[in-house]
């Protein structure tokens, strides 16, 4: 006697001579694969952003009104500097990046804040962290 045709949505049945049908795990394996790729991607981005492979630049607080004809500035206590320039009764103060210090004077640097670098003051205070999340801004003209 012939079997009636099976409905396309009917559950698979064991037939003699054929291995048992397995439920489809294709969607589940795709979800696992995509989730795994997402996790690895996040870990990779986190690792790369945590690396400290950026340039380090030193900074000194200077009296911006003390510029000499040779381009040097007078170095002052870094407590007079902050993220913005301080304009007090004694003058304007700001950060001088890079440069070569000689006594109380500094030269061959800039008052323009560089980006994507780690900036550390003469006393070791971190003014700006490099890479992602670094603060930006600029000083007065050089």
Can you describe what's shown?
β6 (117-121) and β7 (126-128) form a beta hairpin. It is rod-shaped and about 110 Å long. The chain is built from one helix and seven strands. Helices cover 18% and strands 29% of the residues. By secondary structure, the protein is an alpha+beta fold. The chain has a domain at 55-128. The model is unreliable at 132-142 (pLDDT under 50). The longest helix has 25 residues, at 26-50.
Furnish the topology, listing elements before pairings:
Blueprint (H helix, E strand, L loop, with lengths): L25 H25 L4 E9 L9 E3 L10 E3 L2 E12 L2 E6 L6 E5 L4 E3 L14
Parallel strand pairs: 1-6
Antiparallel strand pairs: 1-2, 1-4, 2-5, 3-4, 4-5, 6-7
> What gap, in angstroms, lies between the N and C termini?
99 Å
Low-pLDDT ranges = 132-142
Could you give the order of the helices and strands?
A: HEEEEEEE
Largest sheet: 7 strands, mixed
C-alpha geometry = rod-shaped
**How much strand content do the residues show?**
25-35%
The gyration radius over C-alpha positions equals 33 Å
Overall structural class, as computed from helix and strand content, comes to alpha+beta
Mean pLDDT comes to: 74
- Structure summary, number of beta strands: 7
If helices are DSSP runs of H or I spanning 4 or more residues, what is the number of helices? 1
- Measured as a percent range, the helix fraction is 10-25%
